[in-house]
Backbone:
């Protein structure tokens, strides 16, 4: 399966590692490809995280269902 990443926007969070302000809010989810399209119980397993452009740190964000 293929994971797709999508930048949603910027947050006002400060990176705890390098102190950069304004992390990139990114959504990562599985994309249906080929045979996966036929699976009825496909789980996109979407996750949100904040990505720091400076040091590359990822910080998981709770998904609101
Ligand atoms: Zn950082």
Residues:
């Amino acid at each position: 399966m293929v994971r797709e990443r999508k930048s949603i926007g910027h947050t006002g969070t400060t990176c705890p590692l390098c102190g950069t302000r304004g992390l990139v809010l990114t959504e990562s989810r599985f994309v249906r490809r080929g045979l996966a399209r036929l699976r009825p119980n496909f789980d996109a397993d979407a996750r949100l995280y904040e990505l720091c452009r400076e040091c590359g740190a990822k910080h998981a964000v709770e998904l609101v269902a």
